[in-house]
Amino acid sequence: MEKEWGTEKFLQVFWSSLLLLTFMVVNYFIIVNSTINKGLFLCCLMLCFFACKKDDYNNGPSNNPPVNNPVILGINPTSGPKGTNVTIVGSNFTDNIQEAAVFINGKQAIITYVSKNSIHFIVPPKSGSGLVGIVVNGKAVSGPLFEYEYTVTISAVAGQPGIAGFADGNFSAAKFNSPRGITIDAQGNIYVADELNHRIRRVSPGGSVATFAGMGTAGFQNGAPGVARFNSPYDIDVDAINGFFYVADKLNHCIRRLSLAGDVTVAAGIPGIPGYVDAAGL
Hints:
Layout: H1 7-32, H2 37-58, E1 71-76, E2 79-80, E3 85-91, E4 100-104, E5 107-108, E6 110-114, E7 118-122, E8 130-136, E9 139-148, E10 179-184, E11 190-194, E12 199-203, E13 209-213, E14 233-239, E15 244-249, E16 254-259, E17 264-268
Parallel strand pairs: 2-9
Antiparallel strand pairs: 1-3, 3-7, 4-5, 4-8, 6-7, 8-9, 10-11, 11-12, 12-13, 14-15, 15-16, 16-17
Helix pairs in contact: 1-2
């Protein structure tokens, strides 16, 4: 391929021509006036030295990157959830899908198509937002940012959507009435403060619903699970270290403590009396 003359090529020719001219002048003065022979000879040597250095520089390794490195010009689309089909456009890619790899935020994606100018891939799950990078024939290059969009799937764990009531049983037959706070124990059971049913409900990992504590009538009563009474239990949490559940019993104005067997006592507060006083618990 024929190259155009640039500045470096011009300087190379210039120094070579100057060197030749110098030799001609030296030869002339050697013939005409031998007394200045030594000075001109030294000058000639200096010019020859610099010309050779310049020539060596021009013929040395180039700082320009190889022309066959892959280049990313853009991606489309630039955002999306897992499973999104993305196209990378650029140059110096490959026609062999085995010679290419794509990464988002360091997580490898599945390539579906490659050509010299484009690569198609599928966004992997949980990749997060990050730079799109490719490796083609062992040559890696980073591209633009891809914005990962997280998706959330909502489904009913238990209960009949839109139908208030009370019923224990499997997840599709069970009913709740204004369920509020929840907590989960180490076995994966979900405990629900079922406010208007005045009960604490338990949902097993398989979706079966049962009453954990409370007889279902608003009021106050400590005791065994089927005897205890709550008045609009609003929230619940588990103390996994000591093996207790704590319930905010809203209209009884106290905090109730439940054993792992469901027995209920008062942990703090005077049942039925609202107010504000800091003091020791019961």
